[in-house]
What we know:
The complex is a heterodimer. By secondary structure, chain A is of the alpha+beta class. Helices cover about 40% and strands about 10% of the residues of chain A. Chain A has 2 domains: about 10-95 and about 115-130, no CATH class; about 140-210, DNA polymerase, domain 1 (Orthogonal Bundle), CATH 1.10.150.120. Chain A has 8 helices and 5 strands. By secondary structure, chain B is of the alpha+beta class. In chain B, the strands form 10 sheets. Chain B has a 7-stranded mixed sheet. In chain B, strand 23 (about 470-475) and strand 24 (about 480-485) form a beta hairpin. Classes of the chains: A alpha+beta, B alpha+beta. Chains A and B meet through helix 3, helix 5, helix 6, helix 7 and helix 8 of A and helix 1, helix 3 and helix 20 of B.
Amino acid sequence: MAEMEIIETTSSGETSFSRRNFIKGVIATGAAVSSSGYVLRDGAEAIAQSAAGSVDRLITLNVNGQTRRVDVTKQETLVMTLRYKLGLTGTKIGCDRAECGSCTVLLDGVPHYACSVLTHNVRGRLVTTIEGLEQADGTLHPMQQAVVDEQGFQCAFCMPGFIMSTVALLNDNPNPTRQEAAQALSGNLCRCADYEKILTSVMRAAEYTRRS
Amino acid sequence: MADFKLIGKDFSTPDLVAKVTGRAKYAEDFRAEGMLFAKLLSSPMPHARVRSIDTSEALSMPGVEAILTADDMAEVEAPNEAGLTNEPLYEGEPVLAVAAVDEATAAAAIERIRVDFEPLPFCLDPLDSLRPGGPDARLDGNSVVDGEMTTVKWTDADFAAAVDGTLPMGEPTDQWEFGDVEAGLADADLVLDETVFHQSLSHQPLETRTTMAYWQNGKVYVYPSVQSTARAVGPVARWAGVSPDDVVLVNEFTGGGFGSKISGYPQLVFPILLSKKAGKPVMMRVTRREENFFGRARPGAQGRVKLGVRRDGRITALDLFVIQDGGPYGRSGDFLSTGRIASLAYQPLSMRARGVTVFTNTPPRGAQRAPGGVQCITMLSPVIDKAARQLGIDRAEFLRINAPEGQAEYNERDGSRVNVSSAFVKEAIDKGVEIFGWRERQARSGQRRGSKVTGTGIALSTYSGGSSGYDGLAVIKPDGKLYIQSGVGNLGTGSFADTSRAYAEAIDMPWEKVEIAWGDTGKHLPWSASQGGSQTTHAHTRANWAAGQDAKRKLQEIAARDFGGSPDDYELGNERVYRRGNRSQGMTYARAAQRAIALGGRYDGHELPDDINAMTATSARALAGQGLMGVAKDNYGLGGRTMSFVVGLAEVEIDVETGEVQLVDYAATTDCGRVLHPANLGGQILGGSIQGFGIALSQKWVFDRRWGLLVSKRFYSNRPPGITDIPLDRPMKWAAVDEPDPFTPIGSKGIGEPPVGAGAGAVVCAIADAMQAVGDGYFHRSPVSRDMILSEIEKLPAAHGRLTTHV
């Protein structure tokens, strides 16, 4: 079946991102456009499934301020698109079932589990991943810097998810209490249970945010 | 020596920026050109025989490239695990693996493979198997002794003797006795006899055991999720059927393991062998569901504890019997370590330890943070607690009365009497009592606030804290920087970096000038301790200190050659080696590195010490000629067994209407020798303790008893603690005694193991303390679930037996 191209008119996305965010996104994702699907590549099964569905596959996403054209199957989750089509492996799969939060990304600034969001549903929305936080000059986001300064987390497999949830928290509430921080991060699981240093890092990040 | 510049100071480990930016690559983040994906066909039943497999339809599918079955596995002797099997011994055990161009195709191929399974009898509870005529988990027996499969059955009389739900005690397969336990019990003013239970526990690392592998020019390149680097090479080589020299292993970052990935696991060979068959790279993404089946677990325990105590609080006798839920393969030593840890922590004047391990058709067991130690502390702390309470002795004081001191003796797993290198346990208890405000808090015990009742608890935990005899290797290059090689692995403890500080400290090298190579055997790493069992802090501060001393000596010798006098006339500082009293006679490290290259021989690694490991020698030869090489084996002596200690103190509130337990506050103190890196130490102590909270309160398996199927396969049904489960009113405190072990350079001991038992033990004792106001409160069973608390409060019969497994 012939594929029909869809060019998204992402009014909220394309008009609102700043030049800094755009450059940031290019830096973060620039080298990774080559991977063209792996897990859901065009094997016999994938082709059969997509032919039956007749859903348009080539779509445009706004990821970390960058416009990305990507071929997406109808059943594809955002975390698979990010990791296997866009080369953004910072977003981790811990459970693939909305239990652990390792795959947390921001959609229009709000944390979502990327394992439980269909990629087709994020057209027109601003997707931010862990790779999109560092500035072009290498300046880290306050939460990233706080984690480095506090020696936060242990194995850090959960860390990208926790950091994304914290970024959203601090955008809403730059002065959270420990309880408020814990509530905001309660959708993220750290199996090393380094929660004490995580909370200390969040409080430090809040301090950096207020100062800047 | 106490005047350290780096040891004991906080710093950020060099892996952190990669982690916070998402650049850190874990196993599933690697890609290789033409990479295939693997999927597994796993047993749908707990015990079965595969009668036939028909793969013809799958093999004819476009995109299917290779199929691996049990016939492709290296042969292993019972009771060991091959990886793929034609007699699955637990639900979810892999039977075959398929590699295809993408995962959807591999999954579809699995659906088209027809496997004829013949169901076989299964066993979920060791006690069922020990009964006369009871089911056995394996066709070749239900236990293993001295490597031989055997069948252990107790008599009807053994079971009849156990009245009121107490543990039956038939003939054990393992036992030792120290002193005269019967006499010790006779001497006691108080004797307790308790039946105790500890659940089996999945490790649940957040990164599943995913592996990517490919072959190139006869070598296998493997990107696994394993804890160790150097020590994973041997097992991978064995499973892959190649020489260790033909393995390149990359694991710069590993998403947790807790003992389940120490040096590998048979399942990681699937992508390696599929890749060999298909001639293409293969990625095997292990799902969370699969991880719950073959991701290892801590053995459960059904036990009985007889404790004799004098009026003054001294423990005169401890008689321990443990039936271990051993899973389907191997022989976990947990049930033996339970006795060993009790012997050390409580220093009984006499002790007997007896036990038997029994196979069950439940997920395979493996080491989990303090194997046997956690079971010991979680099961015995409430018994100790109860004895103190009945004798009217403060519970912290009771632990102190019986605590090990100095080079205290204890019984090893085989019963042999050995001694520890050092123990500053009384100091740790005193510090815990102080920072937690233990005495003041006692007034709150049993106090009611609305529907909440308060309780406090304390527990002492201990476990092995290090090994020795490994190698250190590093080079000062002409750019003036120190390049340290670390083969330990990086699962998040940070010890690859923390222990490197010992080398830099030895030659007074500023940390900014240090680069560490780790997590890639292609980078020429030395022979190292396993990244497990709290070994590395002790083992590699020693090895790096030894190699650092070698570098120091070489710097002094080079300076003496150029400026005269004896090497001892030279000292180090400000990245220079210079003559004492005449700083102008000396040179920079950068210059010394150039001189080392010019001199060759032992100075730049062309001649190596005879006693270093072959792996270290190979790596050192690859690095020879690049600068001044410090390389040495740790030949330092030992003062005994290296053991670390943690004291946990908890305050909980129990809601008597809902049965919910909330941690109000928690503190922990440690004797782990000299503090190496405070931030990482705090992370280990409190993180480990919180894992203990999960053991005390929420984590367990539930099996469908009729079909032998695991019901609690996911995080929400086998729930580890979340961030709102910790005390949130104020930060949790921790502190270290910070007394160096006098028998090891630097004096640091490992700390990964003992916090878990401290956290679990303190919480179960705090629950008992709170429950004194409303009932007996000693459940002697973990986890303490809400229904157990409510049944106790309402005086209702418990929903299940005291010893029932997996409910």
